[in-house]
Specification:
This protein is 40% helix and 15% strand. The chain is built from ten helices and ten strands. The protein has an eight-stranded parallel sheet. The mean pLDDT is 96.
Length: 273
């Protein structure tokens, strides 16, 4: 099955999240995911698993150019020289010549965005990343960022049926920035939800599949994480059914402004490491 892709970077609309996957489990899950048909893997320097992600990629036997690999620079490395070094170190750990997408992991209010985006664009020009983007950027920060760099292709943000991100989605669309949803099954929180379960039952699907389909059907990419091989298949099986307009509206009705799971703001000083 060919997985649909979104935006100018042609990001496969489903990928494997790897936060919290470590060691042999991480390498095994990445390998299995690619064998099952995933073609997009999300990691970050923060996750301390880039080496295992690279090992899983090689063990899968899937050609490098068929897999979309994303990693992220942690905000303590947003000064120009640090960012370039961070990108090179990520590639060394991954044992790759380039990543497909390099993201700024969280905004860092202590370092001018112009400096960080200048460095990110340079890393792209050097060929270390084919595409660049941002993560956890608010509407105001998106507007600042696009004035400084016109080549941002992605904003990766928390998104699932319980969180209203409509303003961020609209801002990204206005600037042709693809949205990638992290925590797309609310860290497993959708599993026992009555409405999602009922809609899923009508389609012979699980609540988790409904949550992923809800996002994908809006043209949003999803990167669910699992440590269980059987769930890799479950999360990928979202392309053989369609939610009706009425079901989409019902699910959208679950969203609220307090539905955020990842409540974090980077507050380290420029020297923090
Ligand atoms: N940019 C950022 O700041 C940022 C922040 C957070 C996450 N992310 C990225 O986004 C990825 C996904 O987000 P996430 O890891 O926070 O949460 P998630 O993918 O929404 O949920 C993962 C949790 O759901 C469970 N799960 C997976 N598939 C399931 C299914 N079909 N049914 C029921 N439970 C299921 C997993 O448990 P099992 O392992 O037991 O299956 C795991 O505990 C991360 O791994 C990371 O790559 C990025």
């Amino acid at each position: 099955m060919a997985i649909p892709a979104i935006g100018p970077a042609r990001i496969p609309i489903i990928g494997l999240g790897t936060w919290d996957l470590r060691g042999r489990t991480c390498a095994r899950v990445v390998e299995q995911a690619l064998r099952l048909g995933y073609r997009h893997v999300d990691t970050a320097e923060l996750y301390d698993n880039e080496g295992e992600v690279g090992a899983g990629l090689r063990a899968s036997g899937i050609a490098r150019d068929e897999v979309f690999v994303t990693t992220k620079v942690w905000p303590s490395h947003f000064a120009a020289r640090d960012l370039e070094r961070s990108a090179k170190e990520s590639l060394t750990r991954l044992r790759l010549a380039h990543v497909d997408l390099l993201l700024l992991h969280w905004p860092n209010p202590h370092i001018p965005l112009s400096e960080t985006l200048g460095a990110l664009c340079k890393v792209k020009r050097m060929g270390l990343a084919h595409h660049i983007g941002i993560s956890n950027f608010t509407v105001a920060l998106i507007e600042q960022a696009v004035k400084l760099a016109d080549e941002l292709v992605c904003n990766q943000v928390e998104m699932h049926p319980f969180l209203d991100q409509s303003k961020v989605i609209a801002a990204c669309r206005a600037h042709r920035i693809a949205v990638v949803a992290y925590s797309p099954i609310a860290r497993g929180g959708v599993k026992n939800h009555a409405l999602l379960g009922r809609i899923g039952k009508a389609h012979g699907k699980t609540a988790a599949q409904v949550s992923l389909r809800f996002l994908v059907q809006q043209g949003i990419a999803v990167i669910p994480r699992t440590s269980r091989v059987e769930r890799l298949s479950e999360n990928l099986a979202i392309f053989d059914f369609e939610l009706s307009q009425a079901e989409m509206r019902e699910i959208a009705g679950l969203a609220n402004r307090d539905g955020r799971i990842v409540d974090y703001a980077f507050s380290g000083s420029p020297k923090w490491d």
